[in-house]
Fold this sequence. Notes:
Elements: E1 3-12, E2 16-26, E3 29-34, H1 41-48, E4 56-61, E5 64-65, H2 70-75, E6 77-80, H3 92-103, H4 109-122, H5 138-149, E7 156-160, H6 168-181, E8 186-191, H7 194-200, E9 203-208, E10 211-216, H8 218-223, E11 229-233, H9 236-240, E12 247-254, E13 257-263, E14 273-274, H10 279-289
Parallel strand pairs: 3-8, 3-9, 6-7, 7-8
Antiparallel strand pairs: 1-2, 1-4, 4-5, 9-10, 11-13, 11-14, 12-13
Helix pairs in contact: 3-4, 5-6
Amino acid sequence: MQLVINNLCKTYPGGVKALDNITMTIPKGMFGLLGPNGAGKSTLMRTLATLQTADSGSAKLGDIDVLKQHDEVRRVLGYLPQEFGVYPRTSAVALLTHLAALKGVGDGVRDRKAVVEQLLERVNLTHVRHKAVSTYSGGMRQRFGIAQALLGDPKLLIVDEPTAGLDPGERNRFYNLLSEVGESIIVILSTHIVEDCKELCTNMAIIHLGQLLYHGVPEQAENSMSGKVWEKAMSKVELSALDPKLKILSSKLIAGRPVVRIFSEWDPGQGFHPVAPNLEDVFFVHLKAG
């Protein structure tokens, strides 16, 4: 099953184009939707999740018309928004059982209970299943969010900015869980963190100001910039006097000194040396070109 999106458009009041003729095909596996805040990622996610309408265009998940057959989409959809609320004193097992009943999961109470227990074990929350979800750490809440999104064995899982605020350990556990899920279904991961795409996704897209700037394989995107990324450590005075014609990709302070990376088809001189491109370079070169 593939998700095929053609010429999808959405303009908000005031003339803001959140989606500007987005066209791409998303296959089974982990798909990274990369872009800065306000790029249009959440609008696309909410549209695919049937939470808002598009102005024009089409989206098909297999034989399902995503923009018209909302009930059919919801039967095969799992959705983890950037923020989700929980009942203050409700345990994970009780809340997940309630959500399973609402979604029509299982043939009865006993069958539903077995599904819930399996899901909690899958996301490694069995030991805290009787504790209130509101008392969970950020990473535990996100894992519970994945559990509720996996109710009913979805064919499409949409995850919006999932690792914001997680510590490195929780982030790694969440990565491992998403990677496992993405082996058998379509998982769309919306993020502004380049590392998320690098570590997780077999395919990706870069969106900025509602426009699709890149669509392809992360490794191929990096390889396409081989020999075109240059770096130099310099003083702050040198940075302020840098040639304005240079295409600066990024500037970071390392040990108190700016380290500048630029994009150039040829040797720019001025003390710059070639470096291996990374996905962050790809991200910035498309953003600055777009």
